[in-house]
Amino acid sequence: MEAFEAAHPVIKEELAAAWAGRRGVFSDYEHYLTRQEDWQALYLYRGGGMVADAADTVPTAYKVLEECAVGTEKICPLLESHFSTLLPGAVIAPHCDLWNFSINLHLAVEIPEGCSITVAGEKRSWEEGRCLLFDYSFEHEARNGGSRPRTCLLVDLWHPETTVPERRALTVLITEIRRLMGDL
């Protein structure tokens, strides 16, 4: 968390430049079976590895993620890391994610007034430049009631209560299930 927070000013500049000049690197976010046009994503880590194209687009976030989450094996290789941008008026409906073996880190990159996140009935807002962690197996939702895009860098980390043997077993098991279902 400290490394992401320390790098926030540069990450914010690089993201703003990407949003202004390279909008094509962002895509509609697909959450389970839903595609949401007012929720944009720029992936840094996906499918078990770093997304090489992101290194040129957001080099500071890429480096911090690689060194502090991937290199330390704190990132959950089954999940992902991306910039999550909610356009003004966007709402992410209440939902629970499928896993309880990971936690979600949000680095608040750009937070206009009127944005909120509710987890397990507790409503909060992000503090720009700070990280927020939560267990997203609990019902959660997010809203951008502001007039500008809201962006957080999301990193799916292993839940600290999962042991190394459990992490290895989960990685093998879920990778095989995904292979059998044709998701890989």
Molecular structure report:
The chain has 184 residues and is an alpha+beta fold. Helices cover 29% and strands 36% of the residues. It has helices spanning 2-21, 54-57, 59-70, 164-180, and strands spanning 27-31, 34-46, 49-50, 81-86, 91-95, 102-110, 115-119, 122-124, 131-134, 140-144, 150-158. The strands form 2 sheets. Strands 1, 2, 3, 4, 6, 9 and 11 form a 7-stranded antiparallel sheet that branches.
Shape category = globular
Largest sheet: 7 strands, antiparallel
Beta-strand percent range: 35-45%
Low-confidence stretches: none
Rg, alpha carbons: 16 Å
What oligomerization state is this entry in? Answer: single chain
The helical percent reads 25-40%
Overall pLDDT confidence: 91
Distance from first to last alpha carbon: 31 Å
Number of helices: 4
The H-and-E topology, N to C, reads as HEEEHHEEEEEEEEH
Structural class: alpha+beta
Q: Write down how many β-strands occur, each being a DSSP E stretch of 2 or more residues.
A: 11
